[in-house]
Amino acid sequence: PELSSPRFETSPDGKHLLVKDVAGGGDLIDLDTKKVQTVSHELLNLQYSADGKTILGNRKDATISFYTDKEMLQAGRVLRLKGQFWLMKLSPDGKKIATTNENGAVQVWDAQTGALLKTTPGRFGLVNSLSFSPDGSKILAGYNEHVAKFIELGSQEADEVTTQFLSEADKEKS
């Protein structure tokens, strides 16, 4: 899937803005000084860790780079995962990374080792968004057509609950 518009994320302290552009680069903007630092790697996503100390960027080659907020131009630790993915989300405690591929499968990885912890099959097409619950025990995967899948991480099985949300316009059509 191609990114059709820029993505934005503010730091947890509200002092910085991450801008992921359509061309694959990204900028870190200090909102007080207006200083801009640019990441020129071909990145699919940029994301802050929950504590705001680390920025993650994932590339098409299934690598995730961990950047420090002040040194965004230099990648620190690099984690290589198996397979390809286009969307990622770091758990609130920083111990797990959820990814999804073009088939809609959701994978959960150990953020330190890159070991695959869990996978759930894709049944509803492309995942548009991923989010962890505040305690990191569940993942919400949002799909096209107003479908959301809740994935329970505490179980070895692919425990999931699927819900379809309908807009007011969709409700009137049915």
The radius of gyration computed from the alpha-carbon positions, rounded to a whole number of angstroms, is: 17 Å
Task: Give the strand order, joined by hyphens, for the main sheet.
Answer: 1-2-3-4
Give the SSE order as H and E letters: EEEEEEEEEEEEEEEEH
Structural class: mainly beta
Q: Could you list the spans in which at least 5 consecutive residues all have pLDDT below 50? A: none
Contiguous helical run count: 1
The portion of residues assigned to helices is under 10%
Mean pLDDT: 78
Structural shape: globular
Q: Could you give the count of β-strands?
A: 16
**How far apart lie the N and C ends?**
30 Å
Main sheet specs: 4 strands, antiparallel
Strand content: over 45%
Your description of this structure?
By secondary structure, this protein is mainly beta. It has one helix and 16 strands. A four-stranded antiparallel beta sheet has the order 1-2-3-4, with no helix packed on it. A four-stranded antiparallel beta sheet has the order 5-6-7-8, with no helix packed on it. It is globular, with a radius of gyration of 17 Å. The chain starts with 6 loop residues before the first strand and ends with a helix.
Short account of what is shown:
With 174 residues, the chain is mainly beta.
Topology:
Elements: E1 7-10, E2 16-20, E3 26-30, E4 36-39, E5 43-48, E6 54-59, E7 63-68, E8 78-80, E9 87-90, E10 96-100, E11 106-110, E12 116-120, E13 127-132, E14 138-143, E15 147-152, E16 160-164, H1 168-173
Antiparallel strand pairs: 1-2, 2-3, 3-4, 5-6, 6-7, 7-8, 9-10, 10-11, 11-12, 13-14, 14-15, 15-16
